[in-house]
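Fill-in record for MPN domain-containing protein.
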Amino acid sequence: MHEGHRERMWERLYAYGDSMSDHELLEVLLFYAIPRKNTNPVAHELLAAFGSLRNLFSASPEEIEKVAGVGRKTADFIRLVGLFMARCGKAREEKTGLSSLADVQNFVRARFRDADRERAEIYFIDAHFRLLCAKTFTDFSRAQVAFDARDLNSLLGTVRPNAIILAHNHPSGDATPSSADDSAVREAAGVCRINAVNLLDSVIYGSEQEIFSYYCAGRLPECFSRGKTK
């Protein structure tokens, strides 16, 4: 029942999600809470009762449950989504700033101090030097970590950052870059240049006291001049 309509709504969401009305978005969201019922009239009832999505997702389950056609399970689901929305809004206000060397090194320390295996990460930065997201690129035990150019290219196209910072650790405690590290940074620099993304730094964590920065060492220009992609 209603499978054809739901499929059309999913297709509409994928193609025109940004332009869909509030009740259409709510209708699709309610698919998860109401699997075998037409959620369109329920969405209209909810918006009519609360006036806006903001009011709806701020309401208590008891208040939501009073709306015709909405049971406790649906009310709890809506409240849970509202809590996530509030948490995400707070997180946007508290975005990690990475505008200074101290900011970057402190962030890297927090990410790697408990790591017992070598791994690499990419930090995606917006135009205001705030962290958009952090991606663990590799996480395995071997002699070296390399950033794969194809994966990096795909990530840059998806996240669309203004800049990135590379980071990985040396469990040995020695933060001195290896020739493999140099090659990885050069390759990443080439991918960044193609995508018009700034490579701000590549940081190696050895210990709390041993952190190497390609930027501070003046080695980023060389990486860009020799950077190339596969």
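KEY FINDING: The longest helix spans residues 72-93.
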